[in-house]
Amino acid sequence: MASEAINLVAVIYPKPGKAAELSALMAEVTQKVQAHEPDTLLYYAFTNEQNKDEIIVVERYRNAAALDAHVKGPHFQEFVKKASGLMAKPFELKRGGFLPASAGVARL
Q: ABM domain: from which residue to which, for each copy (predicted)?
């Protein structure tokens, strides 16, 4: 259903020696999402403790239209353009919704 929230996890793989630069770009796009995308409900990144060569991005969108606006928007497009040369391989996306009877917890 188009009105349901969409949850995404992206796994980004920096090239050797490019993690800091890619992290800085991630911080830039995160700030722009915060300022300009009100229907992006959650958007943050962290490094994988087991594999420092991975950056994990957690995203939640109000609906499919919000996700579409993010993907087609100038902030994400600029990130993809700059980040593509810093990634060892294309990022992986995992998409889904809440499990049945799982309300989730958020204390932000």
A: 6-98
Residue 24 has pLDDT above 70, yes or no: yes
As a whole number of Å, the end-to-end CA separation of the chain is 27
CA distance 108 to 106: 6
How would DSSP label each residue in 59-98? EEESSHHHHHHHHHSHHHHHHHHHHGGGEEEEEEEEEE-P
Q: How many distinct structural domains can be found in the chain?
A: 1
Q: What angle do CA 92, 21, 24 make, to 5 degrees?
A: 85
Do β-strands 55-61 and 6-14 pair in parallel, antiparallel, or remain unpaired? antiparallel
* Cα 44 to Cα 68: distance, rounded to the nearest angstrom: 18
pTM of the model as a whole: 0.86
Residue 41 lies in a domain: yes
Mean pLDDT of 73-102: 90
Residue with tokens 């999402």: 33
